Amino acid sequence: MKKALWKWMMVIALMVGVQTSGLMMVHAAPGDVENEWFWNKDRNPERPDDFPEQQGGPEYTERVRQPVSNIILQQRYPETVVLRGALTDNRVALTFDDGPDPRFTGQVLDILNQYNVPATFFVMGSRAEAYPDLVRRMQQEGHIVGNHTYWHPNLVEQADIATLEREVAQTEEALANILGYRTSLFRAPYGFLYNELVEKLAEMNYTVVGWNVDSLDWRELGADDTAANVLSNMEPGSIILMHDGGEWDADRTSTIESLHQIIPQLQAQGFEFVTVPDLLNIPYQK
Ligand SMILES: [Zn+2]
Fold first, then answer.
1. Residue pLDDT, tens place only, 227-278
2. Which residues form the NodB homology domain (predicted)?
3. Is 152 a catalytic residue?
4. Structural domains of the chain ordered from first start
5. Which residue in the list 143, 152, 243, 244 is annotated as catalytic?
């Protein structure tokens, strides 16, 4: 009896000891673990479980590292890579990336409807599968839908050609199931590509669509700044980059509100809004 009691006391002492040393280890660390946890918690009290995230991270953190390479790629592969239309053309094309996003895409479509303006949407395959009704709405309302990979990886840092092929084919399939045709328009996440990836996309019969006017809307600096980024850099034949979707903590309010400045002001200057395939006179399906 005494022996059994002694044994139990030893077990309890051991458990307390383990727990105490565990606690001490947490507190002995410079608070990294706890701070990180609290920071994330504060930042996102309602992180959704079912929202397909961008595998390569938010626009901001990736884009600040972007090398300026699209112009060189366009010169190397003029048949495959397009960045803008002709300077002699008074037409321009609005493009929206990273949707469909149930928080913002509907609002963007409402505004485009209001001004009767067509646009080109480069959607993530995972989000198209999650929100097919928004993709159908794009199509029904006269917009063009292109391929922006399935999970939005940083293709230069993380991916190889096999990954590109899988990401593009998976998205092409997802979109074909919704749209009823195979898109031939591709835009790379963050605009990141290199020679071999462009060559693979050409082999897959894609046109790689870049841009020459960046709204920088992912910085979320407000509608005035976003509109100014577009309006002050506008040229005839421009392809304008904006975002109707983002990470779970992204806010596209600036983008949405800026359209009320961008569209009427450019129309007043005599610009006509068209889709990317219209602007460049290229096919949008295979
Ligand atoms: Zn993107």
1. 999 999 999 999 999 999 999 899 999 999 999 999 999 999 999 999 999 9
2. 90-274
3. no
4. 77-280 (3.20.20.370)
5. 243
- pTM of this prediction? 0.80
Distance 19 CA to ligand 1 centre (A): 46
The rounded Å distance from CA 45 to ligand 1 centre is 24
The residue from 97, 98, 217, 244 that is catalytic is: 97
DSSP letter at 167? Answer: H
Residue 146's DSSP bridge partners are 122
Query: Would residue 97 show up in a list of annotated catalytic residues for this protein?
Result: yes
Contact, 99 vs 134, CB < 8 A? Answer: yes
Q: Give the model confidence (pLDDT) of 75-120 as tens digits.
A: 999 999 999 999 999 999 999 999 999 999 999 999 999 999 999 9
CA-CA distance, 47 to 91, in Å (whole number)? 40
Distance 127 CA to ligand 1 centre (A): 12
Query: Which of 29-38, 65-74, 81-90 bottoms out in mean pLDDT, i.e. has the lowest?
Result: 29-38
Distance (angstroms) between ligand 1 centre and the Cα of 28 equals: 41
- What is the torsional sign of CA 69, 231, 59, 174? negative
The backbone torsions φ and ψ at residue 87, rounded to the nearest 5 degrees and listed phi first, read: -65, -20
Q: Are 94 and 210 in contact (CB under 8 A)?
A: no
